[in-house]
Write a structure and sequence with these properties.
- The complex is a heterotrimer of chains A (about 375), B (about 100) and C (about 325).
- Chain A has about 375 residues and is an alpha+beta fold.
- Chain A contains 13 helices and 13 strands.
- Chain A has 2 domains: about 15-60 and about 230-375, no CATH class; about 65-225, Barwin-like endoglucanases (Beta Barrel).
- In chain A, about 55% of the residues lie in helices and about 20% in strands.
- Chain B is an all-alpha fold and about 100 residues long.
- Chain B has 2 domains: about 10-55; about 55-100, no CATH class.
- Helix content of chain B is about 50%, strand content about 0%.
- Chain B has helices at about 10-50, 65, 90.
- Chain C is mainly α and about 325 residues long.
- Chain C has 2 domains: about 1-165; about 170-335, no CATH class.
- The longest helix of chain C has about 40 residues, at about 40-80.
- Chain C is flat.
- The chains are: A alpha+beta (about 375), B mainly alpha (about 100), C mainly alpha (about 325).
- At the A-B interface, α1, α2, β1, β6 and α5 of A face α1, α2 and α3 of B.
C-alpha cells in the first residue's frame, strides 16, 4: 500500500511540474473550467435555496382555498357559500378572504391588496410591503393614493411597513380594512374573493375537497399540498431549464477541452516520447494523464463551487438574480435560505467533471501510444 | 538523494486539502446562516399564517405568475394560436403538466 | 418527463455510459476472436495498445454507474415532494412499473462492475494479460445489463406522471399487504436479528478458513455466505433495524432511513454492506487465479486482503446495527 501511495505521489510531482512548464495553456483551460462550474453551481444553489424556502414558508399556507369559477374564470364567492361549507363534516374554521389586485399606473406595477383585521387599522390607514415602499419612495406616515373602483381616488396614510425580511412573501402587499378594500376594489358586500377552510383531520383533506366539489359544483378547492407541489415542481423545472441552457456552455467547454487534449504541441509529444524511451509504459503515461485531469478537475471543481457559494449566499446572487426573479417592477429583495446537500454536489460533478474526463479520454490515449522512435527522430 | 527544492505535490495537496475543508465548511456555514435566519423565517411563517398567504411574491407582473397556485385553469396559447407569452416571467414558470 | 437537474444528470450519465460501452463491446468481440499473445502481428500490437484505452474507458463507465446508483436513490428521495402520496423514495419508485427494475438493475450493475474493476486491476499485475479473455467475456455479459438499466431508467423518467397518486412505504412495507416487501416486513424482528447473528457467525468462520487456507473452495464458501448475509441483512433492515431507527414498531421502510430526519443512518448502514459484498463476490475468481503463474503471488495476497477488508466492513455494519438498536428507546425483543 505504501508503495502505491508514494508512487502516485511521484506521479503527481511529475505531472505538476509538467503542467507548470506550460502555464499559459493550462491556465486558460483551468479558468474557463472554473467559470463554467461556478456558473452551473450558482444556478443550482440559488434555485435550490429558493425551493427550500418556498416549502418552509408555504407549509403554513391555508389548508384549503376554495375558489369559485364562472366561465372558466375566478369569480367572487357569495356569503351563503360559507354556510353551505360549514355543513360539511370535518371542516373547521371557515373564513372568507378579501383580496385582489390593484394596478398602479405611476410605477406600472400590480399590487396585491388584502384585507386585514389584525393590525387595528382605521379605514384610511394601510400597511404596505417594503419593496412597494421602496419603489414608490414612501415611508411610514406618508400618504399613498389609490384610484378606486368608482373612479375616485382614496388617500391612505401608511401606518407601518411589513418587515423587509419578509419581502419574499410580502413585497407587493397592501393591507387595509375590509371596508376600505371593498370600496377600493369594488367588491360588493356579501361577497368574498375566496374562502379558506381548515380541516380538523389532515388525512381527510382529499375527502373534504371531494365533498366541496360535490356540494358546490362551480367551486375549485386548492389544497395546501397542491400549493407545495406546484412550487416544488416550478423550481425544479426552472432549475432544469436554466441548466439545459447551460448545457450548451458545458458542451462548448468540452469541445474546447477535447481540442486542447488532442492538439499536442511538438514539445509535448517529445516529452511523451522521451518518457517512453526511458522505460515508461502506456499504463504509466495514462496514469500520469489521469492525474493531470484530476488535478485540473478537482482544482476547478472546488474553486468553482466555492465561488458559487460566495456569489449566491454572500453576494445575493447579484449576477443573475434579476433573470431568475422575473421582470416585475417590484423586485423583492431577500436573503436566500442556504440549503446545500450531497445531491447538488454530485449532480454538479456529473454535469462537469465526468463529461470532461470522457472527452479527454481518447486524445489522452492517442498521445500515450505515441511511438518514441517516431517523435525523437 | 534529496533535493532542497520542495516537491510540487506538497503545495498542491495542501491546496486540495484547503479546498475540501472549505467545501465542508460551506455546509457548516449554511447551517450558521440558516440559524441566523431562523427568527426571520418564523416571523415570515407567522405572516403567511396570519394573512393566509398562498404564494411567493416573486413575480408581480400578471395574475397567473403572482399567485401561481391560485391561477385559473389555463392552456398554452390561450389567447390565440400565435400568441406568445405576454410576460417574460411566464416563460420561467412551468407549462401546465399534462397527463400523457 | 420532469426537468429535474438530478434526472438530467442521470440521463447524461447513462448517455455517456452507452456511448462508451458500444465501442468497448465491439473491441471485446475483436479480442475474443483475434487475441493471440504469441503473435507479433500488427493487429495484435494494435489490440494490445487499444486494451489500455478500453480499460480506462470501462473504469470510467463503472465509476459513472456507481455514481448513478447513488444519484438515482438520492434523486428518487428528492423527487418525493412532487408526487401525491409519495413520502420517500418508495413512493417515487412505485409511480410506474419501471421504478423498481431500474433500482435492481443498478444494484446488480454495481456488483458486476466492481467485479470487472477488480479483475481488471488484477490483470494489470500480470505482464502477459492473463485474464484478458475472461475480462472481456464478463464485459459482454455486463453490456446488456447496462443497456437494460439505461433503457429502464429512461422509461421510468419519461413516464413520471405527476397526476398519478402513488402508494408509499406505509402501504408497501406493511405486514398486511401482499408481495415480497410485505413478506419481509412480516418477519418477526426477533427472528430476523437471530438470522443475522447466525449468518454473521458463519461469515466469521468462512472468513477464518479463507485467511487460513485461501483455497478456491473456502473462497467460494465465503462468497456465498457473503451473498446470503447481504440478503439477510437487507431483510433484517426492513423487518427489524428500521423499526429501531424510526422508533416505531410498524414502520418498515428501507428508504426513509436515508432522510436527514434519521441522521442519514441509511448511508451508514448501506455503504459498508454494499462495499463489503462487492469485495467478497470476486473472491472465488481471484482464488482460481492463484493457479496462473504470472498472477499467483498477487492473487494469493489479494484473496487475503479482500476477505479481510470485506469481513471488517461486515463487522462495521453489524456494529452500526448494534449501536442503532442500543440507541433506540424502542424495545422489541423483551416482549
Amino acid at each position: 500500500m505504501n508503495h502505491f501511495f508514494s508512487r502516485q505521489r511521484y506521479l503527481i510531482d511529475y505531472t505538476l511540474a509538467s503542467l507548470l512548464r506550460r502555464k499559459g495553456k493550462h491556465a486558460t483551460l483551468l479558468l474557463i473550467y472554473t467559470l463554467v462550474i461556478a456558473l452551473l453551481a450558482s444556478v443550482m444553489l440559488f434555485t435550490e435555496a429558493l425551493r427550500q424556502e418556498s416549502q418552509l414558508l408555504l407549509s403554513d399556507a391555508p389548508e384549503i382555498v376554495l375558489q369559485r369559477q364562472i366561465a372558466g374564470r375566478h369569480a367572487l364567492v357569495p356569503v351563503d357559500y360559507l354556510e353551505k361549507i360549514g355543513t360539511i363534516r370535518g371542516t373547521h374554521q371557515i373564513e372568507g378572504r378579501l383580496w385582489g389586485y390593484h394596478y398602479d399606473a405611476t410605477i406600472k406595477a400590480n399590487y396585491t391588496v388584502m384585507a386585514s383585521e389584525e393590525h387595528a387599522l382605521t379605514n384610511s390607514e394601510i400597511i404596505i410591503g417594503a419593496t412597494l415602499a421602496r419603489s414608490r419612495g414612501v415611508a411610514v406616515g406618508d400618504m399613498l393614493s389609490l384610484s378606486a373602483a368608482d373612479g375616485g381616488t382614496f388617500v391612505f396614510t401608511i401606518k407601518a411597513l411589513l418587515p423587509s425580511t419578509s419581502e419574499l412573501v410580502s413585497s407587493d402587499l397592501v393591507l387595509m380594512t375590509p371596508h376600505a378594500l371593498r370600496l377600493t376594489l369594488g367588491i360588493p358586500e356579501g361577497f368574498y374573493t375566496d374562502v379558506i377552510i381548515a380541516v380538523r383531520n389532515p388525512r381527510e383533506m382529499q375527502k373534504v375537497a371531494a365533498k366541496l366539489i360535490e356540494r358546490l359544483p362551480d367551486s375549485r378547492p386548492i389544497l395546501r399540498d397542491e400549493i407545495l407541489r406546484t412550487y416544488e415542481a416550478v423550481f425544479a423545472w426552472r432549475q432544469g431549464v436554466v441548466l439545459l441552457l447551460l448545457v450548451t456552455t458545458v458542451l462548448a467547454f468540452i469541445i474546447f477541452a477535447w481540442d486542447r487534449a488532442s492538439g499536442l504541441s511538438a514539445e509535448e509529444r517529445r516529452e511523451i516520447g522521451i518518457l517512453k524511451a526511458v522505460g515508461w509504459e502506456i499504463g504509466d503515461i495514462l496514469q500520469m494523464k489521469f492525474w493531470e485531469g484530476t488535478i485540473i478537475s478537482l482544482s476547478a471543481f472546488l474553486t468553482g463551487y466555492l465561488i458559487a457559494y460566495l456569489h449566491v449566499f454572500y453576494g445575493n446572487a447579484s449576477l443573475f438574480a434579476p433573470v431568475l426573479k422575473g421582470w416585475a417592477t417590484l423586485y423583492p429583495d431577500f436573503r436566500l435560505y442556504p440549503v446545500i446537500d450531497a445531491l447538488q454536489l454530485t449532480t454538479l460533478f456529473c454535469f462537469t467533471v465526468i463529461p470532461y474526463a470522457v472527452a479527454t479520454l481518447v486524445p489522452t490515449w492517442r498521445s500515450a501510444i505515441t511511438d518514441p522512435e517516431e517523435v525523437m527522430r | 538523494m534529496r533535493s532542497s527544492k520542495p516537491r510540487p505535490s506538497t503545495p498542491w495537496l495542501f491546496f486540495l486539502l484547503l479546498g475540501i475543508s472549505f467545501t465542508l465548511l460551506t455546509f457548516a456555514d449554511s447551517l450558521r446562516l440558516r440559524d441566523a435566519m431562523q427568527a426571520d423565517l418564523t416571523a415570515n411563517r407567522q405572516l403567511v399564517r396570519d394573512l393566509a398567504l398562498t404564494d411567493l411574491a416573486l413575480f408581480t407582473d400578471a395574475r397567473y405568475v403572482r399567485h401561481l397556485s391560485q391561477q385559473d385553469n389555463y392552456a398554452a396559447f390561450q389567447d390565440h394560436p400565435m400568441a406568445l407569452e405576454h410576460f417574460p416571467s411566464g416563460s420561467l414558470i412551468m407549462p401546465p403538466q399534462l397527463s400523457p | 418527463m420532469l426537468l429535474h437537474p438530478a434526472i438530467m444528470a442521470l440521463l447524461l450519465l447513462s448517455l455517456l455510459v452507452t456511448a462508451m460501452l458500444l465501442p468497448a463491446a465491439l473491441f471485446a468481440l475483436q479480442i475474443l476472436r483475434h487475441w493471440n499473445m504469441q503473435s507479433g502481428s500488427a493487429r495484435q500490437l494494435a489490440l494490445e495498445r487499444k486494451t489500455y484505452l478500453i480499460s480506462t474507458l470501462l473504469t470510467w463507465v463503472f465509476t459513472a454507474e456507481l455514481l448513478s446508483l447513488f444519484l438515482f436513490i438520492y434523486s428518487a428521495e428528492a423527487l418525493s415532494g412532487q408526487f401525491v402520496g409519495a413520502m420517500c423514495a418508495t413512493g417515487v419508485l412505485n409511480i410506474n412499473a419501471w421504478g423498481w427494475p431500474t433500482l435492481w438493475l443498478k444494484i446488480v450493475t454495481f456488483f458486476a462492475g466492481s467485479l470487472w474493476l477488480i479483475m481488471n486491476q488484477l490483470d494489470n499485475h500480470g505482464y502477459d494479460f492473463p485474464l484478458i479473455r475472461q475480462k472481456y467475456i464478463l464485459l459482454l455479459l455486463i453490456v446488456p445489463l447496462l443497456l437494460a438499466g439505461g433503457y429502464s431508467q429512461l422509461s421510468f423518467f419519461s413516464a413520471l406522471n405527476p397526476e398519478v397518486i402513488t402508494s408509499c412505504c406505509g402501504s408497501l412495507f406493511s405486514a398486511d399487504a401482499q408481495g415480497v416487501a410485505a413478506e419481509l416486513s412480516g418477519i418477526a424482528p426477533k427472528n430476523a436479528l437471530l438470522m443475522l447473528t447466525v449468518a454473521a457467525l458463519i461469515l466469521c468462520v468462512t472468513a477464518y478458513l479463507v485467511l487460513k487456507q485461501g483455497t478456491r473452495l473456502t473462497a467460494l464458501a465465503f462468497s456465498i455466505t457473503a451473498l446470503l448475509f447481504f440478503a439477510i441483512a437487507l431483510s433484517a433492515i426492513v423487518s427489524a433495524v428500521a423499526l429501531y431507527i424510526y422508533q416505531h414498531p410498524h414502520h418498515h421502510c428501507p428508504f426513509c432511513l436515508l432522510k436527514a430526519g434519521h441522521h442519514y443512518s441509511g448511508y451508514l448502514l448501506y455503504l459498508p454492506l454494499f462495499v463489503a459484498t462487492a469485495l467478497a463476490l470476486p473472491l472465488p475468481f481471484i482464488a482460481r487465479c492463484q493457479a496462473i503463474p504470472s498472477l499467483s503471488a498477487t492473487a494469493h495476497r489479494w484473496v487475503k486482503q479482500l476477505s479481510r477488508s470485506s469481513l471488517a466492513l461486515y463487522l462495521l455494519f453489524l456494529v452500526i446495527v448494534l449501536l442503532e438498536i442500543a440507541a433506540s428507546p424502542l424495545r422489541l425483543l423483551s416482549q
